[in-house]
Design a protein that fits this description.
Helix 1 runs antiparallel to helix 2. This protein is an all-alpha fold and about 60 residues long. The chain has one domain. The longest helix is centred in the first third of the chain and has 26 residues.
Length: about 60
């Protein structure tokens, strides 16, 4: 069963992910391709790792 805590964490993770990806997009437009790629890696890691931990905690 999905709890309120899990929904709250998921919303915060998605919000952080979208904000970070938009910063990566801006960095890409500023011609900093390597920086944008690293920001996107951080964004995906910040989304996937907590979800992975929540999934295996249950």
């Amino acid at each position: 069963m999905i709890t309120f805590d899990q929904v709250t964490v998921f919303v915060i993770l998605i919000w952080t992910f979208l904000y970070t990806v938009s910063y990566g997009k801006w960095t890409w437009q500023q011609k900093n391709k390597l920086g944008a790629a690293m920001i996107w890696i951080v964004a995906f890691s910040a989304l996937i790792l907590p979800l992975y931990a929540i999934y295996f905690r249950q």
